């Protein structure tokens, strides 16, 4: 070996105090496939979740996993039911589906105007006449444009938060989860007009 060659790890490096290291600020953006870049999220693509093109997202729906760990919901996601993001107890955010695709994370929706008391008298009477009929109410509501109705899979991004539930209440998010939820919502609010729907 020539005298000019130095084995890796044998070279002298500049002491840290003599370096001009600086933090760089990079823009967070959504790429052409709907994946968030430069936000510190972990990309964990689950192709089974993506169910066709989405009109939006126009809203954000926050869910809880009803589990103690990340493993169980990720198994469910592999079966095609889940959200675009999942936030683990330590605050790690996993993006599992692109924001250009809808996922199956919202079930049948209730009537927004009926729940808020803003339906016309005729519409309220019609909905009351159906009694307990979730499918009928859902079909009635999906004919409306958002935000006249609650968000649906077709126009909302879903965020799942790892949290357990007992008979009385949901587990509170950890401090790390709370920060990460705010971070995801902040990124999504760049292109989302309404946010924060809770679907329990």
UniProtKB/TrEMBL annotation:
This is N-acetylmuramoyl-L-alanine amidase domain-containing protein. One of its GO terms (biological process) is peptidoglycan catabolic process. Residues 57-187 form the N-acetylmuramoyl-L-alanine amidase domain. It comes from Xanthomonas boreopolis. GO terms for molecular function: N-acetylmuramoyl-L-alanine amidase activity.
């Amino acid at each position: 070996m020539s005298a000019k060659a130095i084995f890796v790890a044998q070279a002298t490096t500049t002491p840290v105090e003599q370096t001009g290291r600086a933090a760089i600020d990079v823009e967070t953006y959504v790429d052409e496939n709907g994946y968030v870049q430069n936000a510190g999220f972990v990309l964990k693509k689950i192709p089974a979740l993506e169910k066709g093109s989405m009109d939006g997202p126009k809203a954000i729906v926050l869910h809880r996993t009803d589990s103690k760990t990340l493993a169980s919901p990720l198994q469910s996601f592999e079966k095609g039911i889940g959200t675009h993001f999942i936030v683990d107890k330590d605050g790690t955010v996993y993006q599992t589906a692109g924001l250009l695709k809808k996922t199956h994370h919202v079930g049948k929706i209730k009537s927004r105007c009926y729940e808020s008391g803003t339906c016309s008298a005729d519409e309220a009477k019609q909905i009351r006449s159906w009694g307990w009929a979730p499918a009928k109410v859902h079909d009635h509501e999906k004919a409306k444009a958002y935000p006249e109705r609650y968000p649906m899979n077709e126009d909302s991004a879903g965020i799942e938060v790892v949290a357990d539930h007992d008979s009385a209440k949901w587990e509170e998010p950890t401090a790390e989860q709370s920060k990460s939820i705010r971070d995801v919502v902040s990124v999504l609010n760049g292109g989302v007009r309404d946010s924060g729907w809770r679907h329990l």
